[in-house]
Write a structure and sequence with these properties.
- The protein folds into two domains: about 70 residues, no CATH class; about 50 residues.
- It contains four helices and two strands; from the N terminus they run ββαααα.
- Strand 1 and strand 2 form a beta hairpin.
- The N and C termini lie far apart (about 70 Å).
Amino acid sequence: MAAKKRPRRRCSECHRRYVPHASAVETQKTCCRRCRLRRRARLARERRLEDLEATRQDERERQRASRARRREREASGKGRSPVRDEVSRTGLDPGLVEIVVDLLKIVDRFTELSLTTLPSVRSNILRNLVEFEARIGQEAGQRGRHEPGVTDHPRIST
């Protein structure tokens, strides 16, 4: 007995023909993820336009709640990190960029290792992390923000 052929359908966004997934033959409207996201955005826009006043009221309430959460976070001291105060709005501090580049090189080097090799170089990873933390601490200490060489990381002790 031959399997029933699934009919080809036309995508509601790009209008290309596609074969729907077997589990969604009745309901699938788009050919791919990109078209599905475009369709969702279009339908959401249409829903917002249908009841514009309610949409605006919901947005105002969402903004009020977001601002209240932000005020609570800032009042409790869990707001911005101290490093952000040193970074300009137009770009990163050159010293910070150097640190990030070094950290990315370390991460890249260790992500290329196999799972069997990784435990054998664990001490190297930890040493690099401690050196990185000390370097950040020294730079922040020069600005009077952090005690040099002391780490807050629970698995790394100096």
